[in-house]
Amino acid sequence: MKxxxxxxxxxxxxxxxLPKKAFKPVPARLLGGLAYLIITIGSMVAIGLFNLPxxxxxxxxxxxGASFASLGFLGHExxxxxxxxxxxxxxxxxxxxxxxxxxxxxxxRKWHNMTHHVHTQDEENDPDTWLTKDKVDKSSVLKFIxxxxxxxxxxxxxxxxxxxxxxxxxxxFFIYVKEFKPKKQWSVWMQFILPWATWIGLxxxxxxxxxxxxxFVPLLIANxxxxxxxxxxxxxxxxxxxxxxxxxxxxxxxPKWVDVLHFNFSYHTEHHLFPSMSSKYYPxxxxxxxxxxxxxxxxxxxxxxxxxxxxxxxxxxKGKELIDPRDDMVYGxxxxxxxxxxxxxxxxxxxxxxxxxxA
Length: 359
Ligand SMILES: [Zn+2]
Ligand SMILES: [Zn+2]
Known about the structure:
Mean pLDDT: 92
Pfam families: FA_desaturase
GO cellular component, one term: membrane
Keywords: Membrane, Transmembrane, Transmembrane helix
GO molecular function, one term: oxidoreductase activity, acting on paired donors, with oxidation of a pair of donors resulting in the reduction of molecular oxygen to two molecules of water
Order of helices and strands: HHHHHHHHHHHHEHHHEHEEEEH
Bound molecules: zinc ion
Number of domains: 1
Protein name: Fatty acid desaturase
């Protein structure tokens, strides 16, 4: 077992070497949000008013979808308090940014800030971590799904990235809304209902085919973009008993211009060390991590991470391994034998003496 440290431990080693300004909010990030908002509304108006050819409408849908995703990345930053400090303004701006992804700011802070960040890759308490073999064994539906051939599962897993964020967010709403005090529940409900009401109301206002181009197709595209990152953030890493971001998170690398468009969302390990720091300073944090713990840090190009995701099964086995229950083949996770250049199953699951006894 490797020695694990909490995110606070790593942060305390790096903090003294960072400039004071790195711990201050960066309101200038809002200019990027304003640009995306103008592009989004401008493209929607163009689709609605002009009788444009199908292909032009589709191109504009792509632009709207990409803007939805970027607004989501900015909303994530804002709701961590790294852009403005005032709570009401933070929630208001975060709410606008997450409007297209239909996620309320109060729900997001509870689910993401207070739960995912605190319990990252904890088998029981991280709402975003993937299934374990024990859970699959207990569900006949899951057992059926995992009996499908590997490539079929991988194909549907990737296809589902076009709606997983919205689906997961809706699921989180129904799980977490009950945990708010009764007095606050109505506002969490409103933050869920209002965005849906806007988007569905818009369908009656502009007509179904226009609505497909200005909301539905962009929503699929935005889901695919945000899930492209989210699915690589932790799913190749092990589940761990200590919330150690170097063990349980992966930073992907993308071309510089993509980092600019996506507000440095690729720096996920850095984000877990300093969630309340503006992502503007994450390249600096990365340098320090690589200097101090080069052997513990996980980083790979986005394309390799997606390839690794395609080639490995999505069920945790004993925390550090991934297992394909169809043939009981076991694969490593990052730091525990997963070599993204050459992904091969390591071995067939060995029966433990207790398994034999149960049988
Ligand atoms: Zn994360
Ligand atoms: Zn976060």
